[in-house]
Amino acid sequence: MMRDLYNALPDDRPITSISVVEELAGCPVNYTAVSKTHDQDIDADLYKDGFFRRVTRYLCHSKTEGYMGYIVENILIINDRDCRPTGFTIIEQTQDTGQKAFKKKQICYKAVPRHMASQSVTDIIILSRSKVAPEGFTLVGEMNGLCICYKPGPVPPAPTPNKSSAQPSSSPLPYGVNPAGGVSSSTGGNGALYPGLSPSRPAPQPPGGPVSGPLSPPPPLPPRNIGAPYNSPSHASRDTSTLYGPPQSALFGVPFTLNQKYVKSSQNGSTSNIPNPGKKSRQQVEDEYYYSFTLEQDVLQRPTS
Length: 305
Prior knowledge:
Layout: H1 2-8, E1 17-21, E2 32-33, E3 58-62, E4 70-79, E5 89-90, E6 105-113, E7 120-127, E8 138-143, E9 146-153, E10 175-177, E11 183-185, H2 260-267, H3 282-289, H4 294-301
Antiparallel strand pairs: 1-3, 2-3, 4-6, 5-6, 7-9, 8-9, 10-11
């Protein structure tokens, strides 16, 4: 009974992903198929049947799948030969069979990071008789005699992690671990990494470091057998790679300096050669750096044999 009551409540969470399937049985996990029209409760097939067999297309949406932190902000219907609108992803194939999604018209949606969204799409319905969107819904367009509408809503705040589970209330360790960095001691200490814990003996000095006592000379090499090859076992060799300290990196000693043309410009008081990136609006940044991940989505949606 509680489950039925929960399902009857409106779900105002934002939609995070939209797809199209050929068969209702092929609706992906965690997706909801729009199988019936909202006004007449008939089949919500968005495809025009072929000459020799019936071809079906059903719209599906999810509120948990998709790219992490992204929500659907808008939905459009465009002609097949129109250019893809900036920031939108075209649903080109069915997710269950990999067939072409539609002919003549295409459905595309815009998914943006939650903090950049101006609105969210919380529900999608299909109308078979009415050409006007119900109250609270926005009309997208018409496909195969059916009208697609979506319900806009505000952008909900991002979920915050539970602070109580970030660190246990009690710890068997004599010190506490600070998530922001550093170690705090509950029993005092000398400020070391592990307060209250001291080694039983001092750590050995690294190679090349200070030596507390006189350095013993290395043992002499055994006499070389004249008749033996140079690399024979009788001619022992010593590894002296650590006698002069730890090995240096490949960039050791390479100076890092500013380009001379910028140095001369700053000394002369001129800043004409220094590039100025300028300020860009959110839409300009999105238009310039947007990447739809269409190829990656197509690869993930292809059925595996």
